[in-house]
Specification:
GO terms for molecular function: oxidoreductase activity. Residues 133-261 form the GST C-terminal domain. The structure is a single chain. The protein has nine helices and four strands. The chain is an alpha+beta fold. It has two domains: 43-129, Glutaredoxin (3-Layer(aba) Sandwich); 134-247, Glutathione S-transferase Yfyf (Class Pi), Chain A, domain 2 (Up-down Bundle), CATH 1.20.1050. Strand 1, helix 1 (51-65) and strand 2 form a beta-alpha-beta unit. The mean pLDDT is 96.
Length: 261
């Protein structure tokens, strides 16, 4: 086992290694000048089809399925090539993460960044996919914020060390695999007596959670991660995953075309 001695003060290494190592920096802000295209439709969406990115396209298509006349331009931010660090994108999301959105429907344009914020913004704007009852709305927010807090342990923890890290570290894989399976077990238990994550109604909480955990249950995020995690043992989660995957709006949200920037 290789050993590592902690320095008194950490300094950025010359090379991180791994699939994303070349993009990582310890500072925020734009790295180059950029002109993002801006279309004429109601919403301008700058994204990439990751678990966080597909939340927005699914939400847009669900709103359209409900009969709302919503239009959007969808532009691809190639995160593997660093598009998210361009000046125009950083002006929309200072955190340099997809997805990001501009609402052009009002007198003043509104920027919205971070996927759960976008889901909540659209749900509140149109009064759809979130209950008006205060207690039921709170339960949806409970699960929306659960996903926001849990997913970094799944993606940045399990996914990183299982799939992206330049070396397999047994302790890290065991640590985050245990947490990933705990989260899957939690969802499986919650869905034992509920059709959707908060009850009988499909909400933005289901969209947020399905985009990560439903796709994982389908083994469609990291190569063979579903086999490694034995996702088939979570039968309630599998039932919920399949029902949502068969929704017409979800299918469209996964198949929508991205425009080049």
């Amino acid at each position: 086992m290789s050993s590592y001695t902690l320095p008194e003060i950490w300094e950025t290494p010359e090379q991180m290694g791994g699939a994303w190592g070349g993009l990582n920096q310890a500072t925020a802000g734009s790295r180059f000048e950029q002109d993002l295209p801006v279309g004429e439709n109601d919403f301008q969406v700058y994204s990439f089809p990751t678990p966080n990115g597909i939340k927005v396209t699914i939400m847009m298509e669900e709103l359209r399925e409900l009969g709302l006349d919503i239009t959007y331009d969808l532009y691809q931010i190639k995160i593997g090539e660093g598009d998210q660090f361009g000046s125009d994108f950083v002006a929309i999301n200072p955190n340099s993460k997809i997805p990001a959105l501009i609402d052009q429907t009002g007198e003043d344009k509104v920027r919205v960044f971070e996927s759960p914020s976008i889901l909540l913004y659209l749900a509140d704007k149109y009064g759809k996919l979130i209950p008006t009852d205060f207690a039921k709305r709170t339960e949806v927010l409970n699960w929306l914020f659960w996903q926001t807090g849990a997913a970094p342990l799944l993606g940045g923890g399990f996914g990183h060390f299982f799939h992206y890290a330049p070396e397999k570290i047994e302790y890290a894989i065991n640590r985050f695999t245990m947490e990933a399976k705990r989260q899957l077990d939690l969802l499986d238990k919650e869905l034992a007596n509920k059709r959707f994550i908060t009850g009988d109604d499909y909400t933005i909480a289901d969209i947020a959670i399905w985009s990560w955990y439903g796709r994982l249950a389908q083994d469609k995020i990291w190569d063979k991660a579903g086999i490694f995690l034995n996702v088939q043992e979570y039968q309630n989660l599998q039932r919920w995953t399949k029902e949502i995957a068969n929704r017409p709006a979800v299918k469209r949200g996964l198949e929508v075309d991205y425009q080049a920037i």
